[in-house]
Each structure stands twice: as C-alpha cells, then as structure tokens.
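Handoff note, outgoing to incoming analyst
You'll be picking up this chain. Sequence as last confirmed:
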Amino acid sequence: MDMLREYKNEQDTERERLGTKWVDYDRLFVKWNGEPMNNNTPYFWLREFCEENNFRFCDIHSLRHFYASALINKGVDAAAVSGALGHSTITTTTSIYCHVFGQAQARAGEAIASVLDFHKSDDTKGQPKAV
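Most recent structure output, in case you need it:
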C-alpha cells in the first residue's frame, strides 16, 4: 500500500506539472498524460520484470486467481473476497471459486472432526470418546 500511495503522489505531481495536458480518468495506472493505458501494458511490464529478475512468469490473471484462492483458504468470507476482487455480486465470486470454497469447507469439517474425535471407545459403552 505504501508503494501505491507513493505512486499516486508521483502521479499527482505529474498531473500538476502537465496542467491542461493531463487527461483525468480517475485511474491509478495510466499513460504519461493520464489517459488509460493499453490493457496489455501491465502484462508486458510484468513479463519483462520477471525476465530481468529471473522469476517464473505468471500472468496477472493467474496472480488474481492465486490471491482469491489464498484469501478463501485462509478463511476469508465470500463477501470480503468478492469485494477485494471487485465483483459486483457475491454470486460471481462463489460461482468462479466454488471449488475452492468447497475445499476450504471440507478442511473445516475435517478440523472440527479431529477436535471432536467421535470414535467409539470400549470403556464408554458406545458413547463418543471425549477429547
């Protein structure tokens, strides 16, 4: 977030310097004059950065899916994930990531089952074994 704020401050300085040449589209990532950049520009920037730093390249869309999956796997609720991704409805998020939510719920079920070990014990005459 600090880097984004710094970038925004630099952009504000550039906006003041350019005066009427600046075109305000109320976006953070823009061309030199404030106009929207080509949709492929961030892709090419990231690819170049990965090549220069010897990182494995993953396109931005893959990073977005990783981000969403990581949030879900850490137990973040669907509404918060939806908001973080900018989806207009929660159903968009739950439809796209239903398999990840399902896996997270299965792990939650396994976790509670391990805490409430319901295996029968010989000395309890069929009653669940207390933990």
